[in-house]
Amino acid sequence: MKKWMDFDRIQFEKDIFHYSGGQKKKLLIAKSLCEKAHMYIWDEPLNFIDIYSRMQIEELIQQFNPTMIIVEHDKAFQQTVATKTISM
């Protein structure tokens, strides 16, 4: 997971309050995937995430293939990771 998060050792020694919004979001995503839940519910997981991290998140979801409910407005992301979508 450390490799996916793309943090170096120095960043892991920093207090979380010094992380950017994207780094905090990546930590939350990694933490939730490490919990090995039966189902995940994510609200706007791509907020504050750069394009490289977004591709990594897509890859992780495809590899783990978890049961998820994702609220996300990005249609390209939806098409990449979703097997079923519900429009509201």
Percent helix range: 40-55%
Provide the β-strand percentage band: 5-15%
**CATH architecture grouping:** 3-Layer(aba) Sandwich
Walk across the major sheet and give the strand order. 1-2
CATH class label: Alpha Beta
Describe the structure.
- Helix 4 links the parallel strand 1 and strand 2.
- The termini are far apart.
- Strands 1-2 form a two-stranded parallel sheet.
- It has 88 residues and is mostly helical.
- The chain is globular and about 40 Å long.
- The longest helix is centred in the N-terminal third of the chain and has 14 residues.
- It has one domain: Rossmann fold.
Topology of helices and strands:
Elements: H1 2-5, H2 9-13, H3 21-34, E1 40-43, H4 51-64, E2 68-71, H5 75-81
Parallel strand pairs: 1-2
What keyword list fits this structure?
single chain, 88 residues, mainly alpha, Rossmann fold, 2 strands, globular
Summary?
The protein is mainly alpha-helical and 88 residues long. The protein is 50% helix and 9% strand.
